[in-house]
Amino acid sequence: MSDLVVKGLAKSFGDVRALHEISFTLGQGEFLTLLGPSGCGKTTTLRLIAGFERPDAGRITLDGRSIVNDPPEDRQIGFVFQTYALFPHMNVAKNIAYGARLNRSISTKRRVGELLDLVDLKGFERRKPAELSSGQRQRIALARALAPQPRLLLLDEPLSALDAKLRESLRAQIRHIQQELALSTLYVTHDQEEALSLADRIAVMHSGTIEQIATPQQVYEHPQTEFVASFVGRANRFSGTVMATKDGLISVKVGEFLFSLIREKGLSDDLRALQITPGNHISLFVKEEHLQLTEMRENAISAEVVLVEYRGETSIVYLKTQIGPLRARVSTKQATTLSTGSEVKVSFSPSAGLLFPAS
Amino acid sequence: MKKGWFLVFIGLLAFLGLVFYQPLFSVLRRGLTEGGRWSLSPLATILTDSYFVHIIVFSLKQAALSTLLSLGIGLPGAYILTRYSFPGKSAIRSLTVVPFVLPAVVVALGFILFFGESGWLNQWLMSVFHLPSPPLHILYSLTGIVLAHAFYNAPIVMRLVNASWEGIDPEIDEAAASLGARGLRRFVGITIPLLAPALLSSAALVFIFSFLSFPIVLALGGARYTTIEVGIYTLIRTLLDYKLGSALILVETALSLSLTYVYLKTEGGFATLTQGSRRVATYPLFSRKASMCKLVIAAYIIIAAVFFLGPISSILVDSLRVRGQWSVESYRQIFTLGYNPFLGVSPLRTVLNSLFIGGISTAISLPVGMLIAMFAVRSRLPGRRLLEAILMAPLAVSSVAIGFAVLYGLGGAPLHLSGTLIAIALAHAILTYPFVVRVIRPVLEGLDQSLVEAARSLGASPTRAFFEVILPLIGPGILVAAVFGFALSIGEMSATIMLMRPGLGTMPMAVYSLLSARQFGAASAMGMILVLVAGIAFLVIDRLGRRGVGCRTL
To answer: Is A144 in contact with B472 (Cβ distance < 8 A)?
Structure first.
């Protein structure tokens, strides 16, 4: 029952407020990702939990006991650094054994063997960190963090220094190990694909606050704030005005066009709380894969094809319209019928639009 | 923990205040008082008297000429090191650190033996060209001083400019080429501006070193060629005129502080140049394809080899020759506890004195330098840059002035250090700790802070993390700093001569005394011990330096 509870965590560095009252819980064996752009406070959150920094305010409890006043060495929290931070003067075995050795209850030698097995690096015991590839270094860093059997594992952008192929395979390996050990894990990343594919839940952070905390699917399909809608996935954004609401439909005017949206789907919590009334200024988001290049009755406008980008199975179509440039993702099969400069109709279903109060 | 460090740092400031700042200030104040009252008259005397004006002008003039010659010799070397590959290249690059550890008085000795009227070069020229008298009259003149300064400083120019040159991303040059710029145009328009900070900063450094140089001017200048540094020595130690001596120190310190300011301004400029990971392409120097260019390079290498190796080899040869015969007699004269009339003490005593002073001095300069380096790297205090500059002040104050400050400020009550080896060791510690800082600082800066965090997240206490992670990583750097500080102390003569008393002699002092007495054999034997110390220091610094610590900033 390794429950991590973070409540009202705040931290400033000089005049810069890095965190405003962050709160969340992490259940036993859960994998939570902190996702956000650089400077959003995700690494600060991790460092406060590890004990490398002290919070200005707030509580951190692990297994029901406050750890705010514990030094990092007493917290039993494993940390994997972006830059690996392997001890350059020790070989692989000594690096892994370092934490296990300090914990008397663990048989060091066996533990090193087990962990090298776990990260598929058997036979690397005598190598120095400088003799490893960056992917191998990161796996050793993971093994080292796991060696003292931590109650909680923190990973700070562990894959960001690696190339794309390696990143994907290591990602799967990390997830696999985490599930095998049923280890509560907090993972910081700025890469949404990484967050979506890894996590049980994602906390999207923005300028020191958590914007939304939910499952990957909910975050992707039902973003609760304009920031989440623009940061997760690729969406087209329009500014408009609410014209009328009736029969569960909202009509929104963007430029000269009138779009209609299904009320229950398209509203964020913010707007649901507000009474939506004609005259309200709103932002409308439509994900690129929800734009269709087939003629539909609703929400259709004419557009000119500017560029078609081949992406394998799908293609990106750049369009010029009267309400600004658009990006649509369609099947490559369909995209091959399009030529630059040709006129098309672009449309989206009333259930595909997402509304937020105008920022 | 934090409070503890703060107290240690306050203690450090108090210590430096007691042994350096307060004594230096009382010397500077002495130069501004007349009969116990504030007065500008000592300063006015210095600035109006034609003798003093002459030595001030001469100091600047010889420093300027030394800088030009050092650049003239050093820049082609830097070019060859950067653009050509040849066997022994890395050894040559390493050897450029030698001048830092080679005592100046040894260089002076080597120059006398090699370039002197009856030196090896003149003898060789006479026998080859059948001349009746020595053709070269280099010593005891401006030429001698400038040549010796170039011997000392050209390697520094070579080192700094080569490092900066290799740091330039070759893609910048390739970009210029792809835009249509040709060889010379690229060199003038791209390479020179990118090298400018390194050129300026090495020139400023050489100027400061030459301006404050003491043993070389003392030994090679003769009576007619006196710099401020020698002038201070003469005023204080020979004429016992503390008032004018202090006033001259005031003038010198003002000049050297402004020069150091220029140096620090230019120094920051080129550290950030290194961007690309690719290195400048090199051409093999020794290939079948001969060219005019290579002929010039070959000529340069031969002249440079004679210039740099000649004086040092002369010391070795002369130490082993007595009256035209090979003999170890000179060494026998040195390794004795018998009284030597030229030294006023036994030669072996001077060796022991030097080792004692070097040990005490290092024991002080190492912790002081480490603390300042830690402060410089870690502190987030407002005004820390200024404090750091003030803490590095001994770099900008002449050694003779520091020697006198220790004598004047600490010689009497309550410490009564006058006439003790401790006083000399203290002066050496003050002179050397800034170099300790310069060695250790980049080591600490290169230390990844997350290593400590990693150790602690794995359960290590701060103390454990220090001993198991930090110390093994910075240990070699500390050793380099200690060896460097020790070697500087062993070779130091300028502050030492200000604090000299009968019986306190050190090795460099012995070399100087034997030189003055024209006991060249014994001087060479003693000189060889100093060369040996410098050689060992060089090897340690070089070996550990390759493991990523060390002397990048030397």
So the answer is: no
* Domain harbouring A29, CATH code: 3.40.50.300
Contacts of A79 in chain B (CB under 8 A): 453-454, 457
Last residue of a domain, one of B319, B347, B381: B319
Q: So what's the pLDDT on residue A264? A: 66
Q: How many CB pairs under 8 A join A and B?
A: 65
**Tens-place pLDDT, residues A124-139:** 999 999 999 999 999 9
Q: Is B455 on the interface with A (CB under 8 A)?
A: yes
Strand, helix or coil for residue B221: helix
pLDDT at residue A2 in the model: 57
Which pLDDT belongs to residue A77?
94
Q: Report d(CA A254, CA A242) in Å as an integer.
A: 9
CATH number at residue B392: 1.10.3720.10
A291 and A307 fall within a common domain: yes
What residues make up the domain containing B291? Answer: 38-319
For residue A62, what are the β-bridge partners? A4, A65
Domain end position, chosen among A227, A253, A277:
A227
**Chain B partners of A99 at a C-beta cutoff of 8 Å?**
457-459
Q: What is the pTM of this model?
A: 0.81
A71 contacts B457? CB cut-off 8 A:
no
Q: In Å, how far are B147, B229, B257 from B495, measured between CA atoms? A: 23, 11, 18
The ranges of chain B with pLDDT < 70 are 1-2, 267-280, 288, 546-554
B304 plus B204 within the same structural domain:
yes
Residues in chain A with pLDDT values less than 50: 1
Q: Work out how many domains chain B is built from and give that number.
A: 2
Single out the residue in A204, A227, A250 at which a domain terminates: A227
Q: Do A73 and B473 touch (CB under 8 A)?
A: no
Choose the final residue of a domain: B319, B348, B371: B319
Nearest CB among B453, B462, B472 relative to A52 is that of B453
pLDDT tens, residue by residue, A196-210:
999 999 999 999 999
For chain A, the domain total comes to 2
- Residue A73 touches partner B, C-beta closer than 8 Å: yes
Kindly determine whether residue B460 and residue A79, on different chains, have CB atoms separated by under 8 Å: no
- Distance of alpha carbon A8 from alpha carbon A22, whole angstroms: 5
What's the half-sphere exposure (Cβ side, CA atoms, 13 Å) at B241? 15
How distant is the Cα of B96 from the closest Cα of chain A, in angstroms? 29
Closest CA to B145 of B229, B211, B216, B204: B216
Let me know whether B118 and B227 are in one domain: yes
Please name the residue of chain B whose CA is at the shortest distance from the CA of residue A153.
B457
CATH number at residue A339: 2.40.50.100
Residues B348 and B314 in one domain: no
Are both B50 and B22 inside the same structural domain? no
DSSP A96-140: HHHHHHHSTTS-HHHHHHHHHHHTT-TT-TT--GGGS-HHHHHHH
Report the alpha-carbon distance of residue A86 to residue B448 in Å, rounded.
10
Nearest CA in chain B to A52: B453
Indicate which of B1, B453, B458, B467 best probes the interface with A, i.e. most A CBs within 10 Å of its own CB: B458
| Facing B453 at nearest CB: one of A79, A89, A148 | A79
Same domain, B315 and B400: no
* Cross-chain CB nearest to B458 (options A52, A71, A102): A102
Whether residues A271 and A218 share a domain: the answer is: no
**Of B448, B455, B459, Cβ closest to residue A83:** B448
Closest residue, chain A, to B470 (C-alpha) = A87
**Pairing assessment for the beta strands A16-26 and A4-13 based on DSSP bridges:** antiparallel
Residues B349 and B300 in one domain: no
User: Across the strands, what pairs with A124?
Assistant: none
B270 and B394 both lie in a single domain:
no
Residue B274: per-residue pLDDT: 47
| Contact yes or no for A24/A199 (Cβ under 8 A) | no
A77/B450 Cβ within 8 A: no
| Chain B contact present for A148, CB below 8 A | yes
